[in-house]
Amino acid sequence: MTTKSLLPWSISRLSMYERCPASAAYRHIHGIYTPKSPAADRGIEIHGSVERFLLHRQAFVHPSVTRYQPLLSRIRKNTPHVEHRLAVDEEWQPTDWMDCWGRSVIDASTEEKSTLVIWEWKSGKIYDDHKEQRKAYAVFAHAHWPEYDYYEVRTVYFDQRKRSKLKVKPKQIKIYREEFEERVGIMSVDTMYSPRPGFYCKWCGYSKYLGGPCRSG
Q1: How many domains does the chain have?
Q2: Which residue range is the domain that position 89 belongs to?
Q3: Helices 69-77 and 38-54, packing angle to 10 deg
Q4: Which of 57, 141, 197, 199 has CA atoms 20 to 30 A from the CA of 18?
Q5: Is the CA virtual torsion 22, 27, 33, 38 positive or negative?
Q6: Is residue 202 part of a domain?
Q7: 104 within a domain of the structure (yes/no)
Q8: Per residue in 23-41, pLDDT tens?
Q9: Residue 128, domain member (yes or no)
């Protein structure tokens, strides 16, 4: 049993908790990190390449995403915010990154008339929880830039050669806020962080199958 909290929350931390509270506690409370997979290392490399390209720090992107260089070049012309850290307090007001209730990092954002466009880069597969990530990005962006009529999150799946988007008005964002508040509320009062065994245990770095500290599953 532990009395420490998983706050401040992020969408990745919340998703990890909802999948298995124990795994979230191992990582974010006890600081037990598992080795990154080759796919994760590749994703970090691609993200870094895109970031440097958008900031005019290199002329070309990672070889795996050269087909997207024309799109990235158009984004770069719009002087985007890149790898922008957004933090909020419990009232959804912008606050300091180190003393906050919730956090999010936006890959890039640009302005198109009355719409704030949030760009998200993905390598690898498409997963269902990516929809929740788009909601979270829209909510955090609205908290920091409330003046727009629309907030559109565009996810670019480099490997799958597909795109997905979510476009919402501030009215819808208020509903998303309430949803996240309820979910985060459940996480924030948990003191047990019990394991939630499932099919994913065989891939979890904390699982007993892989020599981790968790004995469930």
Answers
A1: 1
A2: 39-192
A3: 40
A4: 141
A5: positive
A6: no
A7: yes
A8: 999 999 999 998 888 999 9
A9: yes
Q: Which residue reads 């795994």 in tokens?
A: 23
Other CB atoms within 10 Å distance of the CB of residue 142: 23
pLDDT at residue 2 greater than cutoff 60: no
Q: Is the pLDDT of residue 217 over 70?
A: no
Task: Tell me if the bond preceding 80 is cis, omega within 30° of 0.
Answer: no
User: Six-digit token pair at 148?
Assistant: 């727009």
In this structure, is residue 71 part of a structural domain?
yes
- Contact yes or no for 90/101 (Cβ under 8 A): yes
- The whole-angstrom separation of Cα 128 and Cα 136 is 14
Q: What are phi and psi of 211, to 5 degrees?
A: 80, 20
Q: Which residues of 97-128 are buried (b: 16+ CB within 10 A; e: fewer)?
A: eeebbbbbebbbbbeeeeebbbbbbbbeeeee
Tell me which H or E stretch contains 186. Answer: helix 170-189
Give the model's confidence band at 214: pLDDT under 50 very low, under 70 low, under 90 confident, else very high. very high
- Per-chain mean pLDDT for the chain: 95
H/E run at residue 117:
strand 115-122
Mean pLDDT of 51-56: 97
